[in-house]
Structures are given as C-alpha cells and as structure tokens.
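Example 3.2
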Amino acid sequence: MAQRAQERGGRFPQAPTQEEWERMSVEERGQVVESLPGEVTWDEMAMPEGDLHSLAKLETRDVLRGFFSRQRRQVYLGTELPVYYPGERRFAPDLLVVRDVETHPRSKWMVSYEGKGLEWVMEVHVGGDRKKDAEYNVERYARLGIPEYFIYDRARERLEAYRLPAPEARRYERIPLEQGRYRSEVLGLEFELAGGKLRLWVGNALLLESHELLEQEQRLREEEVRRRQEAERGREEAERRLAELQAELERLRGAGNRPPQ
C-alpha cells in the first residue's frame, strides 16, 4: 500500500485518495505516512530567489509566531513544507498556517492524517514566470478548499489576496483593499506593504518582528536609565541647594545672635 502511494501520479509521490485512506487499516495508514517523503525534488521547486524571497516569508512567519504566542493559541506555521492532499500532487507553499493543531515540528503535512487542510497560504514571488503563483495556484488552492491565499510579489512590490466566499466554494474572490490594507479573516490580521516590507496589523497596532521588539525593549531600557539618571542628578542638585540654603540660614542666625560692636 505504501509503495502504491509513492508510485501513484507518475514520477512524484502522491497521497492516497480519501476513499482509499478510509479503507486502510491503522497499520497501513502508518506505512503510507512513513513512506511519503518530507522533501520535494528540484523538478517541483522554483529556482532559488535569494534574500528577497527568503526574508519575506521568514520575517512574516516570525511576526505571526510572536502574535499567536501572545494570544496563547496553538497555530502551526510552516515554510516550504511538503503538503499532501488526498489524490493530489504534492506542493510546498512558501508559508502556510493551520490553526488549533499541535505545533510540533513536522517534515510534511498529510491532510488525511492530520484531519485538517491548510487554512492560509502565502507565496512570495521575486523572479521568473508569475503564472504558477498568480494563475495556477489561484485555481488550485481554491479547488483544494484553502480559505485564503496571499501573493507577495516583491518584483512589483504588490500584494494580492484571495478568499473563498463560503466554506463549500471552490473559486476565489479577491479580498478588497481597504485603506491600503488587506484583511485576513482567517488570521484576524491586516496586511500592508510599506517601505518595501510586508507589515501586519491588529487593529491600530503594528506587529513587530522579534529583532524590532528587542530593539524597542532596549530603547525603553535606555530611556528608563536616562530618566533615573536625570532624577538622581535632580535629587543631588536639590540636596546641594538645600544644604546651601541651610548654611546661609545658619550664617544669618549666627550674625543675628552676635552682640553689637
């Protein structure tokens, strides 16, 4: 059964259909899950696109991880993870999100095994043919029932966003741009391109990357130290002035108590 799962679909490994999966025993399912590779081949991947590509997805994942961690919500975030939908050719999105699942590290996402499909996907485009992200994946991800799909086109500095209008729909509608932002209902966040970066907002609050949070904390610490130093200098100055006034008062008292010459 595991061997058939690998051979199905020609040259690329493919998960069994849902009907085949349901007919399998627990042992057979385990064999299939184990047999499906946790990597994709060069033939299936786009050519490396450098820092502009890698930083865009890693920075976004960093922001999302921090946000959901503060929300105390279990959300799985994956980058270029092989994904197996039943009876479908595998694919590996630049960034994917699935809510309310275990967050342990994975080498692949098999929908039948996990019991849940992807909920939000982002692809980053830097160079080459845009058709894969902007046309083929728009059709494919909608057909698979992925609720939201975002495309960050760094070459054009443009963001596109799509959403299924209903859970049973299999055709995307564009998410409208509102005041320069695209709202993700799945994530509860808004996305904006600003200053050559993809920025995420929750309401009026800008979500920062880890290094930005550390820099902000460092600035706050330095500001607190500065305020304390200024307060200490002010206290010392006040004490000095008080001592001078007391000394002047003692001098005046002494002069008033001396007998006239």
